[in-house]
Amino acid sequence: MAQPQIIYSQLLLHYPAKAIFLCILIFISERSVAQNDSVAIADVKKFQTELNEQFRSKKESPLEPKDFKQFKAHDFFPIDLKYRVTAKFKRTLNEPVFEMRTTIPRQNPHRVFGIITFSIDDKEFQLPVYQSLNLMAKEEYKDYLFLPFTDLTNGEETYDGGRYIDLKIPSVDEIVVDFNKAYNPYCAYSHRYSCPIVPSQNHLEAKVLAGVKYLKKPSH
Questions:
Q1: CA nearest 219: which of 44, 49, 76, 78?
Q2: In 10 A of CB 214, how many CB atoms?
Q3: What are the pLDDT digits (tens) for 145-168?
Q4: Is the residue at 83 inside a domain?
Q5: Number of Cβ within a 10 Å radius of residue 148
Q6: Euclidean distance between CA atoms 197 and 161, whole angstroms
Q7: How many domains does the chain have?
Q8: Running DSSP on this structure, what letter comes out for residue 9?
Q9: Which range of residues forms the domain containing residue 166?
Q10: More confident: 162 or 22
Q11: 9 falls within a domain
């Protein structure tokens, strides 16, 4: 820590204007990072609030009646922005349509829309992201992308069938993926639902300690 202080002192002595300008840049940069982090945390909290509200709604909740009566809120991992990554996005062209397997057999046509590349704890990962042909026909979902994934928390802290993240088609070759917004399939809560089974290529050989937990039943 002493070295920067010496450098700043030398700058102030010999180049006062440059030193002041450098200090201003550092201050602005640190403040910008703090503001961006605050926005990201607020966005995750909004996601958590909306998910809890959905599960408390009689019209929208996937919970079985006995679980609905007991439900108060989901158990989430603490928000950790290391799991909010800016991934490289590579569009894949002319990918064939395939039927993504589901827990209850049904037509579920998808195609690989792109590949994302990102790092967590200095370890690089690649995952396919998918586009649902059923959803893309609906105006509100025309830019929707689907990221299912499994990781080393499954069957312990999280649902053994993996979790999902909703994304939107990016306009550039980067995309923000926030694992703090990972949620469970509906079939984690009720056998009434048919849920996409996470493809084997969407496995992360790491513990993703972010997003919704799963303790067999929602916390109450």
A1: 76
A2: 22
A3: 999 999 999 999 999 999 999 999
A4: yes
A5: 23
A6: 7
A7: 1
A8: H
A9: 64-202
A10: 162
A11: no
